[in-house]
Write a structure and sequence with these properties.
Length: 373
């Protein structure tokens, strides 16, 4: 622990800091936040003290959860920074895909606009420290939607709990509709067909290595190609893409929906985030305890909030749904479980994708039925 951390009363994170975190990087950010506090906390009358710091690790970044004391009042902030800050910035950017300034600028833009939309929010950005590649935000409060669905979508839960999940998914659809309205561009573009097919092909090859029959992989790739040919040459509106819009990044509270993590914000098709969310729900069925009917109910609620009817769904959305179902299955290869458990989960994931493929092939061109099936 550094002298600066000790002087600020840094309690914890103990051994957590050994998981690839950079103490000096966090300390540099905290030094600037506390010495130049008037710039970042304009309502504060004196420098805050640091009550506690806890660091958690993610695949591409670490998050420092910091509790500050202002004249007796407490505030919680989050410092997001790369795992390898001593490496050249472009090395990290090649791995993650975006400069941290993209997330800060995106949050700044969206925060002002969502303040006018009841029940929809993003976290308030506080500061960007380019030299540390760190973004500082307020901490959002709420329950993670993915955790809520896993706990309450099973057969052991009653109708009232499912109704609450429907309301959460509907609200998530409303949030996405506003997000796309705020980020819409004055231009249109064709779907990136070659890129989608390359991604699906590469991910299917991993799935085959995990046990997916090659005949099933061929059927999925063929279906994706057919759907893309249906919309070939058609130009669609260009909007902002999250593009990791799934229940893991959505918090629910009495105040409404807060969406997290804009590290990879970019511009593209409206289909992308819709397809990502729907696929994340469909992929829950890798666990046989989740019924298709309940997943169908949550998907329909999300699309209702988003504002798409069954008749408005088309082949473009089906192509993105295939893309993200295959991607979700491929990620099972990287799950860190003991080998017998991991292999069982891989088989469940492959079984889920195979069953999904069979339903898709039966439905053929009935896009609305396929997406909601």
């Amino acid at each position: 622990m550094t002298a600066l951390a000790r002087s600020h009363g840094w309690r914890g994170p103990g051994q957590v800091m050994g998981q690839g975190s950079d103490v000096q990087g966090v300390s540099a950010v905290l030094r600037q936040l506390t010495t130049r506090y008037a710039l970042y906390f304009p309502d504060a009358r004196m420098s805050p003290t640091i009550s506690s710091v806890t660091v958690t690790s993610r695949r591409h970044c670490d998050l420092a959860w910091v509790e500050l004391k202002f004249d007796g009042a407490a505030a919680r902030i989050c410092v997001k920074f790369p795992k390898d800050p001593k490496k050249r910035p472009h090395t990290h950017l090649e791995r993650v895909g975006q400069d941290p300034s993209v997330e800060f600028e995106t949050l700044s833009y969206l925060h002002e606009r969502f303040r006018r939309v009841p029940g929809c929010a993003v976290v308030r950005p506080i500061a960007l420290f380019p030299e540390e590649m760190a973004v500082v935000t307020e901490v959002a409060e709420g329950n993670n939607l993915h955790d809520l669905i896993k706990r309450k979508a099973g057969p052991w839960c009653g109708g009232s709990e499912v109704e609450a999940l429907k309301a959460h998914c509907l609200a998530s659809g409303v949030w996405l509709r506003h997000f796309q309205e705020f980020t819409a561009q004055q231009r249109q573009a064709a779907l990136p067909m070659s890129k989608i097919l390359e991604q699906v092909t590469a991910d299917l090859e991993v799935c085959v290595q995990m046990g997916l029959p090659r005949a099933v992989a061929f059927s999925l790739l063929t279906l994706c190609e057919e759907q893309l040919r249906t919309v070939e040459g058609r130009k669609v509106p260009v909007v902002g893409e999250h593009p990791d819009f799934q229940p893991d990044n959505i918090l629910l509270s009495p105040a409404g929906v807060t969406v997290l993590d804009f590290t990879n914000f970019q511009y593209g098709s409206a289909y992308n985030d819709v397809g990502r969310f729907l696929a994340s729900l469909d992929f829950l069925r890798k666990n046989p305890l989740y019924s298709r009917e309940r997943i169908h109910t949550l998907k329909a609620a999300f699309l209702e909030g988003y504002g798409w009817s069954r008749n408005e769904m088309d082949a473009g959305l089906t192509a993105y749904l295939i893309r993200y179902m295959v991607q979700a299955t491929r990620t099972a290869r990287k799950w860190s479980y003991p080998n017998p458990v991991k292999r069982l989960l891989e088989r469940w994931a492959i079984g889920c994708l195979s069953a999904w493929c069979r339903r898709a092939m039966r439905m053929g061109d009935a896009c609305g039925e396929h997406i909601l099936g």
